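Table S2 (text version). Query chain:
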Amino acid sequence: MMKRGSGILLHITSLPSPYGIGDFGYEAYRFADFLAKAKQRFWQILPLNPTDVALGNSPYSSCSAFAGNRLLISPDILVKEGFLSKSDIEHPPFPEEKVDFPAVTEYKDRILRTAYEKYRTGGGDGEFMRFCSENSRWLDDYALFIALKEHLRAAWCDWEKDVCERKKSAISAWEKKLEDRILMEKFFQYLFFRQWTLLKTYCNSKSIQIIGDMPIYVTYDSSDLWSNPGLFKLGADKKCLSVAGTPPDYFCATGQLWGNPIYNWDALKQNGYSWWIERTAHALKLYDLVRLDHFKGFVDYWEVPASEKTAINGKWVKTPGEDFFEALFRRFPYLPFIAEDLGVITADVRELRDRSGFPGMRIIQFAFRDDQTAELYKPHNYIRNCVGYTGTHDNNTLIGWLYGRNNNSTRTAVEVRRERKRALRYAGCEGKRKREVTWQFIRLLMMSVADTVIIPMQDILGLGEEARMNIPATCNGNWEWRFTKGQITSALIKKLSEITEVYGRD
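Corresponding structure-token output:
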């Protein structure tokens, strides 16, 4: 059970930065200072894995479950550590409040290649080689995968047969042919993990714990699938037989068709869940606590035939969830997981969560709907071993939820009005200004018995739906929001620290 405390949800990309995207640079350290001054114990972030413009820039759709996102590497830190000069990081004008992913990707790739060329001509060092050796189990396949994709310009299933099937002679030939590009990709990963480790160490020195996020699924065109096709439900042609999603829900009447490959849980069980054990060990090195995405999927998952255009015609399929977590606990005596137990949660999911001792999630925005689970999400019904949120990256901001447009859920206009009226009445906010309303909902969470409370930065700043991070079941315009330097004020720090202290979370 975690010590009583609170924190803020803010992805690294949302930090201020002159380089078009938040990164591991000086503003990240300033944000850690802000958290410490405001008496916050936790900084929750989204997955740090590589993103892709073609996949909507989602951190939940990545070509690797182990690699880091090179876009988060700080140009300023590269200059400070001698990898680049100041003239190397000159940049075009970037918008302050949004991430222009194509422009940022072009810029970061250019300066990172420059850093590699300077490093290579300088002769290298032992620290980089140690990094490559210590991470070889995933890094070798990942770097080769990226080099092949760039060279062949196709998904791995469309590569020549011997490479697709990883024949040793073909792999050796390509490793030799693409040797320099492979080394460059490894160098990018070295820079990423070097900078992240320094930032995390600084946060921990300020008594701030990092809550990371481990997506349950990987994408089809990923190094994980190419390296481990037997762990997924694929046909003889290496194509997906079925894909992941959710049935019709709050966000979409036709369900959410994620399209991720489905795990072959029988194969995972036969090899002792070794891939998941390695992935968990990797996550526990990166973070202090880990939000275990889509916890229900470890009990049963929604499987949709690959030919379907929506998620309606899927079915629930059981997994060896209890056996899986027993295997994890044998390897890791303590698993600092937070179970993302949202959606349609059945008794067996709750039993596995509680038996494992993982805190679940309680979202205040779910507390006023016309359904029987709403009472669970009201702060007066919380239990100690849970994490309370005003909302997550998939929700609207508090202001957007209470006053914005209803264009992102299956609710009717009447249901929306009824929900908002209940919420405002519950919080005692009828007739109050929006800014006061935001802090009253934050206060309700802070005074609850939940050991941990996490507030999205957008709600701390009192922003509307324009600051929303993601709209589920949509592909465009997500993951772009950023805040600016001037939005954190001494008055804000004072207000947040006082409410934290009043309710014993300091």
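Notes on Table S2: Residues 195 and 341 are 32 Å apart (CA to CA). The longest strand covers residues 209-214.
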